[in-house]
Amino acid sequence: MMNSFFRNPSCLIAGGLFLFCAHLSAQTHPVSPRITQALEETNLVRLQGNVHPLAQAKYDQGAVSDAKMMNRMLLLLQHTAEQEASLKVLLDEQQMKSSANYHHWMTPEEFGKRFGPADADIQAVTDWLMSQGFQGIKVGVGRVVIEFSGTAGQVRRAFHTEIHNYLVNGEERFANASDPEIPAALAPVVAGVVSLHNFPKQSQIHQLGSFKRTKGTGEVQPEFTYISCGSTGTQPCYAVGPSDFATIYNVQKLWDAGVDGAGQTIAIVGETNLNLQDVRDFRKMFGLPANDPQVILNGPDPGITSKSEETEADLDVEWSGAVAKNATIKFV
Predict the structure, then answer these.
(1) Half-sphere exposure of 146 toward its Cβ, with a 13 Å CA cutoff?
(2) Which segments within 133-249 are labelled E, that is strand?
(3) pTM
């Protein structure tokens, strides 16, 4: 993994995992259309599992106004069984040194052509969305999602589900009250609707460590050892800093050889903006060279959506930059 980390020209990371790297071309294969029947609004199929678990009757505050705007909803598209099997094989081969596909990465465009729906299917789905009055229709480059915007009334009429207000733990949210339905002809291509609600995803971060600041000098030092591990919570924990990581995973040799991420770009996906000063403090505290991440907004600036989300964003940005310390970090 460390070789991939430093050598790939452009990588996408989410939650600390490498998801996709753009590098070399991959062979494309013709994709057959799957939408072969006429669209009939009276012949519907239910998209099971598309109701948020907190959209419960005990929290229900009633239907929202039909005029309520719902921006940047996502229609999730699906692979064929053959595409899914082929993708799994390719992902394995890209990590096998004995394979001709070893480190033969695909661009998003190439991925979409090989593993996405046929052009005719994409056109049929976008035409249907337009016919329902939705606007801002954008097909993702990788042909995995289609973004669209509209009103709650348009959602109700197109997907045959009402959007309700919910009050959960004192927070107001909205969500679809039942699984959406679509014309049966679209079912071979459409997997579901990702975002008919505004319930946030819960960060999995657990804050355990701390740092201390010397009153007289203002010097900041991390508290590397603290008591909170083990089944009783009384055993010492030993936190890991960038230099520790470099020693444990044999990165120091790469740094010494000048392989430190310079000239490379790492893209990290987040759901919140972040405070650049957090990153600067982290790098200064551990003696890393100054290297601010580039913040790229995909749509309106969400601001700091929550403390836990920002902490997770900080971790992803700080630690990718702690290992590839001179790489360009793009936080999207």
Answers:
(1) 25
(2) 135-139, 145-151, 163-168, 171-176, 181-183, 190-193, 211-213, 220-222, 225-229, 235-238
(3) 0.72
Dihedral of the alpha carbons of 84, 86, 90, 92, in degrees to the nearest 10? 70
Please answer whether residues 202 and 272 qualify as being in contact, where contact means their C-beta atoms are separated by less than 8 angstroms. no
Q: What is the pLDDT of residues 266-301, one digit of tens each?
A: 999 998 999 999 999 999 988 899 999 999 998 889
Pair 264, 328: CB distance under 8 Å = yes
- The three-state secondary structure class of 21 is strand
> How many angstroms separate the Cα of 44 from the Cα of each of 34, 41, 163, 179, 187?
17, 7, 19, 12, 9
Which has the closest alpha carbon to 23: 13, 31, 11?
11
Map tokens 């001179």 to a residue.
326
| Cα separation, 273 vs 165, whole angstroms | 26
**Structure-block tokens of residue 40:** 């009939």
- Inter-residue contact 195 to 73 (CB < 8 Å): yes
